[in-house]
Amino acid sequence: MPMDIFSKCYGFKQAEEVRESGYYPYFIPIEENRGSRVVMKGREVIMIGSNNYLGLSMDPRVKEAAKKAVDRFGTSCSGSRLINGTFVLHVELENRLARFVGREAALVFTAGYLANLGSISAILGRKEHILSDRYNHASIVDGIMLSIGLTGGQVKLHRYHHNNPEHLEKTLAGLPADEAKLIVTDGVFSMEGDIARLPDLKKVADRYQARIYLDEAHALGVLGATGRGTEEHYGGDKFADLVMGTFSKSFGGIGGFVAGDPVVIDYIKHFSRPLIFTASMPPAMIGAVMATLEIIEKEPEHTHRLQQIARYMIKGFKDLGFQVGVAETPIIPLLIGNDEKTFMFWKALFDNGVYANPIVSPAVPPDRSLLRTSYMSIHTDSELDQVLEVCGREGKKLGII
Ligand SMILES: Cc1ncc(COP(=O)(O)O)c(C=O)c1O
User: Is ligand 1 within 6 A of the CB of residue 369?
Assistant: First the structure.
């Protein structure tokens, strides 16, 4: 008898077992979004699991801009950017984004995931090398995998130790000098909230004539005096050759972009399958993101409040005795190191009115399971104190602190 392709699905029992135990933390529908609080399972909880860092997805100006764009262009582009799916809105947003990150050109994708998939796979070719931080986001990894698939295995992947330019240099030193190289790193790492050592990476890159691709998903609107991200955090030099960003975090939407030299952006436009073979970003979202971008540019106080909250919460958790790794942004991991305890802690917080994200292997190494907490500029001081109080009390009960 031939095997049924679905037999693995019928044999997959783990999720059901955890559901039955009452500790299943995934796919819980949000019944109402009240900004810093949401309603889940009929109860209001403080949301410390969102990447809506500046709280702008609920801003009335952003909602209004989305509606206006729908009135003018409808709900969908119904086509690829390459053919019928480019509206003047896409082009306007690209020009404004390029200016925001200090580059000459930008290209918008339908999701941040697709921006990484599409830019990395378009740029990498046969006998070329990609050097990737071990903690880089899955969309970077998948972009590399796509490039390996498209070149019949002729793109060479080298994973260097996390945030470790010394190990990067060692790796580069072992590669053929005449073959092209791209270094790829998150600006702010998505699980533990630490910041890439970008100036040191740049020095190494220059010594080996390698280019740098910087994923600013968690850095734009978050780092720097005006929210322009990791480069601004380090003084404003242009360390990266390509800057990628998403709209699903500070921009309160969905979509992504890559920015850089116009010739390189034009090349990506013509060789990126995840750009060409999917419909373009819908008008409502472009309208929303343009409004958000304007708010970020004109009202840096949201970014400043977020940075102040990050400092307050990092100190608060440290004072309570939590292990927060090298947290230095509004992504603050509470390191637990044990999957079962992580789920128990998640549930204890949820039962006490706080929602955070449990992160276990394979998203992090098996001994680094953690509760990922993240903050928004719209969190009030009293909400933050309530979070610290609940985490401290429940963390003590479970022996985490
Ligand atoms: C570092 C990083 N890059 C890219 C992405 C993908 O972005 P999006 O969710 O907007 O598709 C994410 C999303 O979690 C991310 O954390």
Answer: no
Question: With a 6 A CB cut-off, is 302 part of the ligand 1 pocket?
Answer: no
Over residues 174-189, the pLDDT tens digits come to 999 999 999 999 999 9
pTM for this model (two decimals): 0.97
Catalytic residue among 156, 167, 218, 302: 218
Separation between Cα atoms, residue 76 and residue 146, nearest integer Å: 27
Q: Contacts from 29-33 at CB under 8 Å and sequence distance 24+?
A: 33/57, 33/58
Helix axes 262-271, 112-123, angle to 10 degrees: 100
Specify burial of residue 206 (Cβ count, 10 A radius: 0-12, 13-18, 19+).
Answer: exposed
Q: How far is the CA of 137 from the centre of ligand 1 (A)?
A: 7
Q: Is 117 helix (H, G, I), strand (E, B) or coil?
A: helix
Q: Cα of 248 to ligand 1 centre, how many Å?
A: 7
116 CA closest ligand 1 atom index: 4
**Residue 105 in 3-state DSSP?**
strand
- E-strand ranges in 9-127 read 30-33, 37-40, 43-47, 105-109
Tell me, yes or no, if 190 is annotated catalytic.
yes
Q: Check if the beta carbon of residue 40 is closer than 8 Å to that of residue 357.
A: no
User: How far apart are the C-alpha atoms of 273 and 122, rounded to whole Å?
Assistant: 8
Report which DSSP code applies to 321: T
| CA 218/CA 250 separation, integer angstroms | 8
CA dist 243 and 115 (Å) reads 11
36 flagged as catalytic:
no
Say whether 233 is catalytic. Answer: no
Task: State percent of the chain over pLDDT 70.
Answer: 100
Amino acid identity of residue 282, one-letter, is P
Output phi, psi for 132, to 5 deg. -125, 130
Look at residues 195, 203, 392, 194 and name the one whose alpha carbon lies nearest to residue 183. Answer: 203
